[in-house]
């Protein structure tokens, strides 16, 4: 989906002429978005993934402790 060309500046200072919804910055490696709403959505998705990964690691640690360490310590 091509949009009307728009000049967008990355956080590192490099400027891009975007004709689509997003593009990766060659200098810093971050995504540059055509719409500001998409940038906020990406930030929310990143935080959500950190919470999910942390929750899975915490759950697996709890299961390991309850099912393996506690019974072995009673032997």
Describe the structure.
The protein has one helix at 36-73, and strands at residues 6-9, 15-18, 22-24, 31-33. It is of the alpha+beta class. Strand 3 and strand 4 (31-33) form a beta hairpin. The N and C termini lie far apart (64 Å).
Overview features:
two-stranded antiparallel sheet; 75 residues; 1 helix; alpha+beta; 4 strands; 51% helix
Query: pLDDT under 50 segments (min length 5)?
Result: none
> What structural category arises from helix and sheet content?
alpha+beta
Largest sheet: 2 strands, antiparallel
Q: Indicate the radius of gyration in whole angstroms.
A: 21 Å
Global outline: rod-shaped
The proportion of residues in beta strands is 15-25%
Mean pLDDT metric: 90
Strand order of the largest sheet: 1-2
* Helix/strand order, N-terminal first: EEEEH
Helix content: 40-55%
> Number of helical segments?
1
Instruction: Give the total of beta strands.
Output: 4
- Separation of the first and last Cα atoms: 64 Å
Quick take:
The chain is α+β, with helices and mostly antiparallel strands and 75 residues long. It is 51% helix and 19% strand. The strands form 2 sheets. The protein has a two-stranded antiparallel ribbon. It has a two-stranded antiparallel sheet with strand order 3-4.
